[in-house]
Amino acid sequence: MKHIFSNSQIIRVQQTASTNCHLLQLSETENLHEGAVLVTDNQTHGRGVAGNSWESEPGANLCFSVILYPVSVKASRQFFLSKAIALAVYDFLSYFVPAGVSVKWPNDVYVDDRKITGILIENFVGGDYLTKTIAGIGVNINQERFLGNAPNPVSLRQITGKTYSLDSCLKALHAHIANRYRMITKDERQLNLDYLQHLYRFGKPGRYFADGVIFDATITGVNHYGMFELKTTNGKNRIYGFKEIKFL
Ligand code: BTN
Question: Does residue 2 form part of some domain?
């Protein structure tokens, strides 16, 4: 399938500390086309959000980063990058897993109540606009056992019982990223609708922890700044930024 990133470089390295760091470094000296990917079989110091680490068995999973130049996107609207990447992963996975895939705010991808994908978006800003984005994606594909301390990991193989070609998975996911990325400028409305439609626990009551209190609430939306909006069971509207609230 031809898409807007069809001519972008795919750089393969056998081992690297973190594909995000490696691709960022390369981008400082090389002319990388938009959509260029750096992928590895063995990421030794995978980085997660908020200083967490990301563990992935060598050769078993997709571990890569993609470079974007979203120069027409205002820095204040950078959450659209998270939405687009998370939805691309959703699109890719829901082909293999017809039910139960969702995006957990802000940008994890889950199957039922287990995490199958972690995403680390690093945005660079010049003035009011974004200049460059390094989107790092770790999708658990063929791993059979998780030995680290991630709370609830799952792989595609654990769900379907099949093994997958990592090359074909990368190709398919890359095409979905191109499509969802294009929507940021061409079809923002649909991107927002799809994000809410596939959002984990959207519209369903759930239990949360914030400001030292446990409470029950229903997700009502996610605003343009990426903040999480809820209505508590006693009718109060609440809004939270990343790391201010925990799902229980
Ligand atoms: C998270 O869930 O905390 C985000 C994890 C992101 C992991 C991916 S794997 C490829 C890319 N390189 C990194 O160092 N991290 C991201």
Answer: no
User: What pLDDT tens digit does each residue of the chain (248 aa) get?
Assistant: 688 998 889 999 999 999 999 999 999 999 999 999 999 999 999 999 988 999 999 999 999 999 999 999 999 999 999 999 999 999 999 999 989 999 999 999 999 999 999 999 999 999 999 999 999 999 999 999 998 878 899 999 999 999 999 999 999 999 999 999 999 999 999 999 999 999 999 999 999 999 999 999 999 999 989 999 999 999 999 999 988 999 99
Q: Are residues 153 and 226 in the same domain?
A: no
Q: Best of 13, 26, 41, 43 to mutate for ligand 1, by most ligand atoms within 8 A of CB?
A: 43
Please report the sign of the dihedral spanned by the C-alpha atoms of residue 27, residue 85, residue 106, residue 183. positive
Give residue 12 CA to ligand 1 midpoint distance, Å: 17
We report the CATH number of the domain holding residue 210 as: 2.30.30.140
Specify whether 147 is located in the same domain as 26. yes
Alpha-carbon gap, residue 136 to 63, rounded angstroms = 8
b/e sequence 79-99, b meaning 16+ C-beta within 10 Å: bbbbbbbbbbbbbbbbebeee
Total number of domains in the chain:
2
Domain shared by 162 and 210, yes or no: no
Which residues have CB under 6 Å of ligand 1?
18-20, 43, 46-49, 52, 54, 63-65, 108, 118-120, 136-138
pTM, to two decimals: 0.96
- Mapped onto helix, strand or coil, the DSSP state of residue 212 is coil
Expressed as residue numbers, the domain containing 98 is 10-197
